[in-house]
Each structure stands twice: as C-alpha cells, then as structure tokens.
Amino acid sequence: MTFVALVGAAAFASLPGLLIDPLHTEFGWSRGMIGLAVSLNLALYGLTAPFAAALMDRFGMRVVVACALATIALGSGLTVWMTQSWQLVLCWGLLVGLGSGSMALAFAATVTNRWFVAKRGLVTGMLTAGGAAGQLVFLPLLSWITEHHGWRPAAATVSVAALAVVPFVWFLLRDHPADVGLAPYGATQFVPKPVPASGSALRAVKALREASRTGTFWLLAGTFAICGASTNGLVKTHFVPAAHDHGLPVTTAASLLAVIGVFDIAGTVASGWFTDRISPRRLLAIYYGLRGLSLMFLPMLLSDSIHPPMVLFIVFYGLDWVATVPPTIALCREHYGENSAIVFGWVLASHQVGAALVAYLGGVARDALGSYDVVWYTSGALCGIAALMSLVIRRRPVVAVPAVALAG
What's the pTM value of the predicted model, to 2 decimals? Predict the structure, then answer.
C-alpha cells in the first residue's frame, strides 16, 4: 500500500518540467518566475517532511498521508483557473508543496523503521523506487496531454490521480505491525504499538537541535542538498525545456525523462541491496562521483534527435538518480536511532532546499545566458564535492538521544 501511495503521489512531481514552456508561452511569465513557484514547492516538500514524520508518530500514517494527498489534489486542481503568477506560487508552490512534503521520503523511512528489522536497505530502495515508478507511469501521459490538449487537463489529471489514492490509503494502510497482530519483519518477538507521541512540532525541533550538534548531520545534509540540486532541481525541472531548446520535441524529451525513471527503479532497488552489504559512505562517494561525471558530459549530448551517447547518459544517470537514498537513510538510522526518520526528514529538507535553489537559479540562468550549460557544469562540480564529503562522514556511530527524552 505504501508503494501504491508513493506511485500515485508521484504524478505531481512529473508535471513542473512540462509546465515551464506552456506557461511562458500563454502568460508571458519568465522562466525565473515559474521556477520560483517550483522552487517553493520543492523547498516545502523538504521542510514539511520532519514535521510530517513527527505527526505520523502522533496521529498515524493513514491520517497524515490521506490529508497530504487531498491537499495535493486541491492545489493542482485550483491551478486550472489561475491567471496570475502569484496564483501559481500559491497553488503549486504552497499547497502542493505542503501536501507533497507530507508524502516525502520520510514516509518511506517511517514505514521501514516500523515494519522491518531485516533487509531495511532493500525495502527502502523498493519504496523509494515507487516515486520512479510513478514518474514512469505519469510523465509520458502528462506530456502527451500537455502537447495535444494543453497544460490544464494535465494539471487536472494530477489532481484526480492524487485523489484516487486516498480511499486506498484510508482503508488499507496500517500504522504498525501490531495493528494486524504481526511482528516486524525479521524481528524475533512481537513488538507492541507505541503510545502516540505528543508535541510533534517540538519533537521535530528537538531532534534537529540534537542532531545539529554532530558533524555527521551537516555532512549528510550538505551531500543531500547537492543530491537535490542535481536531480529534482536540475534534471527533473529543466531537462525537458533544455532538450527542447536544442530542437528535441517535448514529448520525446519527457519520454527520455521517463526512461530515467525505468532505470531509477533498478538502480534504487540495487542500491538498497548494496546498502545491506557495503559501507554506505563508500556507496555515496561512488554515486555522487559518477553523477558528477555524467552531468559534465550532458551539454555535449543535447541535440534535436536521440543518439546512442544520449541513450547511454539516460541509462547511466537513471541508475544513479535516487540511489543515494538507501545509504543516506542507513547512516541516519546508524547515528540517530529511534529518531532517525525525523532526522532524515531534516536531511531531506536540505535536499529540497538545494533542489529549490537550482530550480529557480536554473531558470534565471536560462533567461540571462540563453542556455543551461553553466548550470550543468556547476552541478557536476558540486557532485564531486559531495563525493569527497561522503568519505569524511564518521564511521563510529553517535550515541542517539532516546526518543522518550526528545518527546518529553
């Protein structure tokens, strides 16, 4: 059920890159202005996550996820009637950002922590792949709708998709294995359901305060900010318009982005399997280093047609897209124990802040320079820095502050 929910919610993430050119053409809004709305969406996606993780502890996953999907449906549906740029910022930036933040990867981390003891890395990879699967399903469809019927029906499709998942979440999703009389997978004994934690917002802030006293947190936050900048902020937002600048049809470019999602599924599941067996620090260094190299070559590969080197980039980059998530969650779990889902929520916030900056600055750079080349090269260099930062993360786990102390 968690995988299905993540697939359904992925519809919203597939649309921003498809909106840039149609909105620019219809309303005359600058790419920087449109990028600002996408930037707010991405920032709230991350900043909401740690509070959502704490709210799941307080009210349960089912309530939080159902409300999040309804908010996404409302925000996307209202964009159909917008005529001013501030309405895009309000609907797509604020409402969809808040809703999607509550459906963020902290949801997958919470499910993994509660329901699994063994094979957590593999499960994390499989749940993370839900977003990629959703992109694979929705991106070609939304690009076809946008090209043949306009952006409004595409936005309405996102709204309907998010709303359609709500009944499944409400009736099928369970908060804890104890709700169905089961022990967590791999556990040797039954684990009773914990008492709902009060003071969700305070707990999230306290978890941040404790984690921020460790160097590991800042290294994880810094590398994940670069991860967001080089994926959601850059490729997911600007790849389609950048390819279109070189003469590639929008539908074709969107299909390439969807193919990235195909290989993303394989790469993320494999990364989860590797995380159970190989040092997460080494994995992160490898992933960021390879991603940086691929982005450095991309400006030379963009053209008005698909050719073998571009296909190679799509495959290579797709395998690496969110492969960083399982090892990052594993390091949070290793260092921060019971509060790892909340701490990962804050690390994810940095991911989305990085994505938000590049979503906005990428549009500004395109308006000012007439191309995205400098953005590709800069992001590639940042990935090299992230690879070095990953190797600096401490090997010895930091003693986690008990959850009871943080909740009190």
Answer: 0.71
